[in-house]
């Protein structure tokens, strides 16, 4: 089914410019969620009680930002795994808070 979406903008009503802006936004949004799913398997999360899902989503985003800030030349997934096994590396990650 076709979905109608409305946006509020101060940009002049140029269809091509607005289309590029919306596509750029969704490209960034989709990339961010893809990263969360790959690194933290967010789509497999089974939290459904009270605010558990929202709270863990915030924690995953926080952890993702820490992993991205660390300068190690490892994938985000490997950094996460290393932090789980190495308390020294975990302490280094937390310095980027």
Q: What fraction of residues sit in β-strands?
A: under 5%
Helix count equals: 4
Query: Gap between N and C termini, in Å?
Result: 43 Å
Percentage of residues in helical conformation: 55-70%
Helix/strand structural class: mainly alpha
Task: State the major sheet.
Answer: none
Notes on the structure:
By secondary structure, the protein is mainly α. The protein has one domain (15-94). It is built from 4 helices and no strands. The chain has helices spanning 15-40, 52-69, 76-85, 87-94.
Identify the notable features of this structure and list them briefly.
single chain; 97 residues; mainly alpha; 4 helices
What is the secondary structure topology, with strand pairs?
Elements lengths: L14 H26 L11 H18 L6 H10 L1 H8 L3
Helix pairs in contact: 3-4
Kindly summarize this structure in a few lines.
With 97 residues, the protein is an all-alpha fold.
